[in-house]
Amino acid sequence: MGIPNKANINKFTYNDYLNWPENERWEIIDGEAYNMSPAPSRLHQDILGALFSVFYNYLKNKQCKVYPAPFDVRLNLEGEEDSNCKNVVQPDISIICDISKLDERGCKGSPDLIIEIISPATIKRDLKDKFYLYEKAQVKEYWIVYPEEKTIIIYKLENGRYGRPEIYSEEDKIKVGIFQELNICLGEIFS
């Protein structure tokens, strides 16, 4: 089964998304639908699990929440109503500190930090399409993880735009921008 025929639709919306088969994973970026297949690699999942556990343990008994994919993030831009939202993504990891953005369907609005783990099938979307989408949506930190290279590139919002990238390798520790007291040893993440 697939998404509906696009011939009669200018842009897909969250309302369309809600009517697609539940056993399929999709994202919508600027009204364009993207299938989330194939399934992530074992290395992707190992890194996702390691990063998620660091944030999960750190955030215990704190207001901020961390969610791994699949977790819908609706980025309503320009005052869009939820049903007309043209940007629905499933980042590998989302951290949300304003819990009023959370509902039973996921997150409505910008997370504070998003992590995407690169795979050959998603590299263009993660590096270009999502970069500009997350910047426009004012996501404070955007982390891009390169599993094979054991590298993480971090973009932080500065005056409404992403500043110069910070590049970290497996020998480094990351001081998380939104949590100044949290340091992540990348050797442990990539081991």
Automatic annotation (TrEMBL):
Q: Which residues form the Putative restriction endonuclease domain?
A: 16-180
Query: Please, which domain of life does this record's source organism belong to?
Result: Bacteria
Kindly give the SUPFAM superfamilies that the UniProt entry links to this protein: Restriction endonuclease-like
- The identity of this protein, by name, is Putative restriction endonuclease domain-containing protein
